[in-house]
Amino acid sequence: MMKKADISKLIRPNIRSLKAYEAKEIPCRVKLDANEGPYSPLPAVKILADKAILSSLNRYPDPEGKALKSALAKSIGVSSRNILLGNGSDEIIYYLISALGGPVLFPVPTFVMYGVISQTLGAKAIPVPLDKDFDLDTGKIISIIKNQKPKLIFLSSPNNPTGNCFSSDRILKIIAASKGIVVVDEAYHPFACSRGFLSSLKKYRNLAVLRTMSKVGFAALRVGYMVAAEELIREVNKVRLPYNLNSISQAVALQGLKDKKIINALTKDVAKERSRLMKELSAMDGVTPYPSEANFILFRVGDADGLYRELLKQGVLIKNLNGMITNAMRVTVGTRRENDIFLKALRSALKKN
Ligand code: PMP
């Protein structure tokens, strides 16, 4: 008889103690928990009717994503050699930590995957609390840079889940002080008023900018990209799995970039609805919303767990962040109709809570 394997003993200790990332599929009427774009940019998706794409599904996709890379490069004014494509920007975070290793520094609270992937890959994570305004604690970060020399620093700006951009001068100070790579994760840049950090790439070789198409209506495609110095792109590219971006995603994303007007209209809609939501939330007793430059709003309530359950009973799914920030919740900006349903449900839930 075959000996029973003790699987848990076979698993590396850093993985055994890891909690799987929960992206639960909770049935709901209105889904405002994952910072997706509020609607699908249909004209881009219509490219799927193109027979050439569908009749070559037996072939592997373009391993380099040449056409998409070149369109992205053109749209942001860099060379294709400065771009690495990922199956979502998540994958690029994974590749960066694989290629460079730790220590990996990031402020907290922030996007959880910086910590999860560090632990997965056995890289030391250095979480540094944000200051009381949710901005970077430059003094602390710079002293850690001196003492622990992090190989990678991840700065999500606008930051998920707080919604604010970090001050540019603080980001620049950190880039200047660091010998490691500073990754400014601009997943939510399309909704922000700041210019972002692409224009600083020429000046700082240790800067990398992460972008994604997930927040502007294309989350299902899983298309993210990094813009950085050629040498960094070349090295990180070595750990990229072949064919990491499927051909349907490449084709739809390429078409999506051509329909710039549609993405622009979507970001404008989101900005308009964000200010309406902000106004409505600010006027509610027991709700404290924080200003946002992203496609979501962080707010504090008296009892986030109770309110989360009440909202779900009414078919409204938002993110309960109580484990991360006391009694905080995050709502994604949806369509006008979705936001109305959320606001109505929240008012009624607050009365019961
Ligand atoms: N960075 C940040 C700050 C995010 O919030 C997210 C998505 N939640 C990502 C990266 C990953 O996005 P994707 O993998 O869909 O490109």
Bound molecules: 4'-deoxy-4'-aminopyridoxal-5'-phosphate
Estimate the mean pLDDT confidence. 94
Whole-angstrom Rg = 21 Å
Assess the beta-strand content as a share of residues. 15-25%
Outline the low-pLDDT stretches: none
The computed structural class is alpha/beta
Distance between the termini: 58 Å
What strand line-up does the widest sheet have? Answer: 2-8-7-6-5-3-4
Overall 3D form: globular
Oligomer state of the chains in this structure = single chain
- Can you count the helices? 14
Main sheet, how many strands, which sense, barrel? 7 strands, mixed
Query: Would you list the SSEs in sequence order as H and E?
Result: HHEHHHEHEHEHEHEEEHHHEEHEEEH
Strand runs, count = 13
Helix percentage range: 25-40%
Polypeptide structure, described:
It is globular, with a radius of gyration of 21 Å. The N and C termini lie far apart (58 Å). 39% of the residues lie in helices and 15% in strands. The strands form three sheets. Strands 2-8-7-6-5-3-4 form a seven-stranded mixed beta sheet, sandwiched between helices. Strands 9-10-13-12 form a four-stranded antiparallel beta sheet. The chain has a two-stranded parallel sheet with strand order 1-11. It is an alpha/beta fold. The longest helix has 23 residues, at 260-282. Helix 5 runs parallel beside helix 11 and helix 6 packs across helix 7. The chain is built from 14 helices and 13 strands. It has helices spanning 7-10, 13-16, 42-45, 51-54, 66-76, 89-100, 113-120, 138-148, 168-177, 230-237, 247-258, 260-282, 304-313, 336-352, and strands spanning 30-31, 83-87, 104-108, 125-129, 152-156, 181-185, 207-212, 223-227, 288-289, 296-300, 316-317, 319-320, 328-332.
